[in-house]
Fold these 4 entries.
Entry 1:
Amino acid sequence: FVMLLLRTLIILLIILAFARPAIRSVFKEDGRTSAIIIIDGTASMLYVDNGELLFNKALRKAEEIINFLKKDDTAAIIFSGNNPTFPVPELTGDKNRLLKVLKNSENSWSRGNPIRSFNMAFDLLNSSGALNKEIYYLTDGASNAFPDSINNTNESIRLYTILLGPEKREGSVIEDINLVDKLLAPGKKTTFRVSALAGSEGNEMDIEFFVNGERKGKASVIKRSGNIVGTDFSYIPENEGWYSIYATIRDGYFETGEKRRITIHVPHIV
């Protein structure tokens, strides 16, 4: 039984430059390869670096890996997050099928919890008869991007981490907005809880709260880089019906990640 310390492996096996010769050298020429590509699908991957979302950059890197696979090689893709998604639940040699998955994929907006993704990858590779067994983890390395440890009984599996984005980033992202009060009624105060992932710029960030497109609140939150911070907003709906609620941060680094929206229905009181 081997306890694989992921943080140690990252130091040993990290690939900082994703040049084509580096990828070619990973695959041995004398045997088949089975590769699992784990793509970080958390909210922090919505960061914009040089005009491109980190998530989209990860998709491009995954496409490069798939295109380097040989005729008899197989691969699978896992999108990491609280609930990992496994679009093709098997190792396949059909490159077009894998590339189609990448083309149709979207970020999950979830918090980081990659342990399940790595366990799924190890289980799949342990069942493969290929000589070369590889895991590629495409991530920005943000908070909770790496598990402290994972269990693996197969020492032949090699792990490569590809870090995306700048080492120090600016900007923040809205992670979630939730309805705290479950019983809604006209004239009754309703509370919403907003959580955000803090960037490194400045000591505070402003979170704005909107109802049906009209700003109803603003909060300045003390932050620490890479940490989850949050605040509550309250609103009293005057009438029954549907309400569009969203929270936003206007710092220009995360585009779609700067806003999270929910819709609520306030019922008629008999």
Note: Helices lie at 6-13, 20-26, 54-68, 95-103, 115-126.
Entry 2:
Amino acid sequence: MDKTTNSAYRTSSTNGGSAISAAAADIQKLPAPRPSPPLEMSGPPGSIAAAPAPTPPPAPSSSSLFGVMHNQYHPSTMTASPYDYDAYRMAINDLSGYRSSSSRTPTTTYKNSITHPINVSWMIPSWLNVLLQEDMRLPKGVRDLNDLADRERLPDLMTPSLEEALARAQQRYPNWRPRGNMGLCSCPGKKVRLDGPVNGRAKIERDLDLDFARLQQLGCKRVICCLFDEELAFLGSPFPQYLQAATNHGIDVVRIPMVEGSTPETFIEMEAVLDKIDETTKAGDSVIAHCRGGVGRAAVVACCWMLRQGLIQDNRSVIAWVRRYRTSKAIETDEQEFYLEGYHIWKTTNGHPAFAKHFEDELMLRRRRKEDFQLRARQAQELDIARAQRKAFQEEEDVEQRERELRVEAALEEKRLAATAPLPGQAFSASSLPPPRESMVPDNEFDFSLAASPVPTSLQRQPGQ
């Protein structure tokens, strides 16, 4: 790239998209891409020879700009390509923050593997993955990946290194391909809320074969599954069917099951999984980790991998990075943050077993305290629910009792009125009415002697009055 194009990069903040447009125009002047022959790597000692490259796909069209694949309703997903310069093209697109108009997610009530192909969030952007294709080291002048968050500095940091990396890679490895990446996604074949949307969240009914076919298309050769068999079955992807679908698409499955919101119990367990990830990425293939939604447990695996590679310097920064490229909800619990803090310290001590033992004991203690707290909270909640149910039952009983009393009173009133009503064809008469209350006293009980008693003298009428 000449000085004119390089200067256009430096003025990208003031000229809007002119820098990217100039870079893209300059890219078009490159020779047409050519397919790579079968890979016969003669790299450094210890490098893993990749399998023969598959038949290359057709050249990218204008609808899939520079090898960018678009979901129907999701942001574009970068995919590895066997073309020599496609990584450079993708780097330019990713540097520009390119998004197609189809990336705006409309409101929907139903999702499946066709309308919403499984979305993968890559932990290393394509423009950076080009730089890390040889030894996973960061370019000069960059402390860690978070230094690249300010896109105004990217032209000065990335452009020369990008050209050098491409030239060096093509000189050393004529059949060069980008290094494998790591991504996060939700569980393949997931089926939730089958009765319809809940709280604005759509019904999801995915297909295992279609999801694994898409992962294979994205260059994935290994999947890290963080779910137990019971949770896989609950999500509609029983492990035997899950494993068969993955095998049919040439994808290896590595399992590290964790309780939701939790972490592995030891660092050694995590290291064994990270070894498998490194083995795959060094061969130029990608790895994808998932849990239920690819947000909590799978994000822990991704954070540990980036810390181990030295791409991020501390645990807080790696959490910020994953939240930037996956979702702001990534790393869901304090326990997961604590585990990453301990893993970072453990790596700085070169895996000292004493620290690992101390930290793992502390982790288990915290986990037991958390479980006890959750148990007490659950018991208190159940007690409150029982009290509320008893109160509601008592109120219902009171209402029913009052209704019974009202029905009895209504029946008695109806019976009394029926007894006093005239027969059919009988004329109404006053004699049919009940006697007045005053005449209900029997005559033989009336004291007539009171009428014959003399009037007191004080009350008698005097003459002249």
Note: The CA atoms of residues 120 and 185 lie 5 Å apart.
Entry 3:
Amino acid sequence: MEDIKTSCSAAGTAPHFPRRGTYRELPVPSATNFFLEDLSDDGPRHFLDSCFLCKKPLASNSDIFMYRGDIPFCSEECREEQIDMDEEREKNRKIAMKKALNQKKSSSSPEPKTIHVRACTVVAG
């Protein structure tokens, strides 16, 4: 414990850590370690290989209908169905956000109530 106090008491000095080997001393990996060609069907596929919605394979000589720049579809119908689903999801999200905001407003502070009073003169006779 005394060694720790002594080594830390000197201002401006840092503890010395021995250097480990440099990167130059590491073994050089062969090029075969960097390139692995996986031709199995289970591997990742190119994003234009199948329809995003129905997963139908896209033929190389057929039209591909794109949505949002990088989502492929086999037909206009599949694309329109996805657009409709996205619009419905966005609409529901906005409704839920409004509902949550209204609930937050109503639960955080009660709205002030206005009391209407009619001014009149009473004459006793």
Note: Residues 45-104 form a domain with the Ribosomal Protein L24e; Chain: T; fold (CATH 2.30.170).
Entry 4:
Amino acid sequence: MNQFSLTTRPDDLDESVGPNDLNGSGRPKDTNGLGGPNNPNKSNLLFKDYQNDHKFTITTQTSTGVEITSTGVRKGELYLADISTKLKNKNITSDIKVDTNSSLRTTITVDEPAPGVKAIFSFIFPDQKSGKVELQYLHEYAGISTSIGLTANPIVNFSGVVGNNLVAVGTDLSFDTASGNFTKYNAGLNITHADLIASLTLNDKGDTLNASYYHIVSPLTNTAVGAELSHNFSSNENSLTIGTQHALDPLTHLKARVNNYGLASALIQHDWSPKTRFSLVGEVDTGAIGKSAKVGLAVALKP
């Protein structure tokens, strides 16, 4: 499912900002990514935490303030693991991750080297073409982000969003200097009104149109419904996903979704403590009842 995101950082570091992340004055909140009209509430409702793998995460913090996170994932017969460390010293944050693919990801973030500015430097070793420098600027009612690869013929990314707590519009562009062509151009519109958020995005160089909707039914029980309809112009295919969420109590949450392909999923999350979460996910193909249901399990511990 395509989602519009104005971010130029690696996927696993993406913390996009949407219009819902604007405060009452319309000024974007302080975040680690610049995003656009991607309706983050809808994305959380319909897609977040729905995984059919077995995942275990534990996070610890040393007396010097270094945060260490270890993650293990089982995908079928494949086992993956990584260890990441995060150290913050004044306005500089360093993230280093090592995984079982023998890759080393490093991200260095400098907050406020100048008012409203954030600088991000990232690279993946041993990929010599992965180096990237990004600059973000957040101002009242607007934000821009631009990045460039540290290669002879880099890819240049630009994203921008303008809006307030009611309406936001944005665009996301990527230009390959080697070929002289745009490799990505997306655009989006997001409208927020009371307990309803609606967005319209054009992705894949104008080939995919997404419309999404998120409605808060009951704030007291965190009950909400959402839907996303996607149309691909080249293949003339449509996809529809609808979902809902509800809190049984302050520590236990339920989510469910179904799409037009007959895949139905349900999720239950329980917080043992403010820093410990257990998640159980089940997925069944209603069009093929003979197939076994898929079950995913995730445990996150943070002593």
Note: The longest helix spans residues 40-46.
